[in-house]
Amino acid sequence: MTSLDTNKASMPPSQSNQVLLRPIDMTERAPQARRYEVIEAIRANREHTPSIHQIVDPKDSVLSIRSFSLWYSKSQALHKVSLEIARGRVTALIGPSGCGKSTLLRSVNRLNDLIDGVRVDGSMNVSGQSVYGPGVDVIDLRKRVGMVFQKPNPFPTSIFENVVYRLRIDGVRSRSTLRDACESALRSAALWDEVKDRLDQSAMGLSGGQQQRLCIARAIVADPALLLLDEPCSALDPIATLRIEELIREISRRYTVLIVTHNMQQAARVSDATAFMYLGRLVEYGPTRAIFQVPKLPETEDYVSGRFG
Ligand code: ADP
To answer: Residue 6 pLDDT > 90, yes or no?
Structure first.
């Protein structure tokens, strides 16, 4: 075992992750010369063993996914995925389009329940509490698991009401409590200075990047155990994207983040751990530095360097 794959303490601060992406050297072994044994097994629907680096001590796990499968009617989108997500870290889900990243993310706060014909098997726990067990209160689950989507989706109300929405649902009435919570969430979302003088104005007047930071403020106001981000920058320009990426690094000091991204540079920049998925299966999971620099599988190496997938 190398020092890179021992434990979470060895995971590097991601501010330095910019160096992770190697330029493609076309003189390296050609892709067709490499055997993708795991990918071949997956394509042939044979059992495969994902490569899991030892990165998460189970007592540091916020989200525990055990042999989780999901079907959209007859079509199986997730196949026995097992993953432990570390507390206070950013974990990226990567893989080719259609490999099940969003399905897995949406399963964590049971958004897939809303789709007819969805069936699941296996288990998930957030902070030790079952996600799919009998009698789970889905409203309560969604309080503990915040989510931000690809397209910013502020409510057509004021900035203030957007941020405190969750607290109002909980019955918080005290104006000073709501004001303090609003300020704290907006500061955490790096938006306070830009909007503090217009909290009563419509959120719809904000720029796309500001709206997405508002959605992050709305998601963290109730102090979730886990924050799910589904390609949060895909509708944003490069400057707004950079601000959100900085924000993700910043909020990971207080929150655990699970992010879906199709952008390798983004995964390398913002995450501490990376899980590579293919056709609904987990292929390799480890510290981002290891996944990008010394992955165990040739398919992972070729995927993150753009030579496969
Ligand atoms: P990714 O996020 O990696 O692009 P998705 O999770 O969106 O992948 O999709 C995984 C698989 O599930 C794909 O084959 C996709 O077509 C299928 N899928 C996604 N959403 C639905 C749905 N609502 N109904 C049926 N199939 C779906």
So the answer is: no
Residue 18 lies in a domain: no
Going 140 to 143 to 147 to 153, the CA torsion angle's sign is positive
Q: For the domain that residue 251 is a member of, what is the CATH number? A: 3.40.50.300
Determine the Cα angle at 130 with ends 167 and 124, to 5°. Answer: 110
Domain count, the chain: 1
CA of 77 to the centre of ligand 1 (A): 7
- How many Å lie between the centroid of ligand 1 and the Cα of residue 105? 11
Chain segment 183-219, per-residue pLDDT in tens: 999 999 999 999 999 999 999 999 999 999 999 999 9
The structure's pTM equals 0.90
Question: Does residue 2 form part of some domain?
Answer: no
CA nearest to 155, candidates 146, 165, 147: 165
Calculate how far, in angstroms, residue 272's C-alpha sits from the geometric centre of ligand 1.
26
Q: Which residue from 120, 151, 133 is spatially nearest to 280, judged by alpha carbons?
A: 120
Atom in ligand 1 nearest the alpha carbon of residue 280: 10
- Maximum Cα–Cα distance across the chain: 66
Domain extent, residue 97, equals 35-304
Is residue 219 within 8 A of residue 247, CB to CB? The reply is no
Per-residue burial over 106-118, b if 16 or more Cβ lie within 10 Å, else e, is bbbbbbbeeeeeb
Question: Could you tell which of 68, 72, 115 is best to mutate to test the pocket of ligand 1, judged by most ligand atoms within 8 Å of the CB?
Answer: 72
User: Is pLDDT above 80 for 20?
Assistant: no
Residue 28 included in any domain: no
pLDDT in tens, 254-308: 999 999 999 999 999 999 999 999 999 999 999 999 999 999 999 999 999 998 8
Domain-located, residue 231: yes
User: Could you identify the atom of ligand 1 that is nearest to the CA of residue 102?
Assistant: 2
Q: Whose alpha carbon is nearest atom 1 of ligand 1? A: 98
**Six-digit token pair at 129?**
């509490």
